[in-house]
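FAQ: What does the model actually see?

It sees only this:
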Amino acid sequence: MDGDTTFWDAVDAVRAERPRYAREAYGFLVAALGATVQALPSERREDPVARHLSGGELVSGMVRFARSEFGPLAPMVFREWRVLTSEDVGAIVLDLVECGQLSARPEDTIEAFRGGEDLLERLGARTESQVPPGPPPEIPPA
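And it is asked to produce this:
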C-alpha cells in the first residue's frame, strides 16, 4: 500500500481478498494495541525495542480492553466479528502487517498467537483487572 492509503482503505483492501473478519475488528485491534502499550511501565514504553508486544501480551491486552469497552457483551461482540481464537487475533495482526499498517519482527508469526486459554472464555471471565484510567485511544475514523 502506498503512503496515501488510509487505515480503512487498507483494511477494506485486505477484506476484499479475505473477508473472514468484520471490519470493526481491525480498528478495535489497533485501539487495543495502543491501550496495551500505554499500560506498559514507562521504561518499557519509552524503548522502541522493549515496547514491542508478544502475541500473548497483545491478546491479553485485547481481552482487558474488550472487557472495559463491552463489559459482559465482549464475547458476543467478538463472535459477531468472527474473532473466536487467539489465532484469529494473530491473523488480523498479520493482515495489518501485510498491508503496511503495523510493523513486525521475525518472531511475529501466527504461531506466536496459538495455544493458551480460549479467547471467548477469557472475554467472559470475571476479573478485577481493567485497562488503567485515562482517555481511550482513538479508533481511526471510518
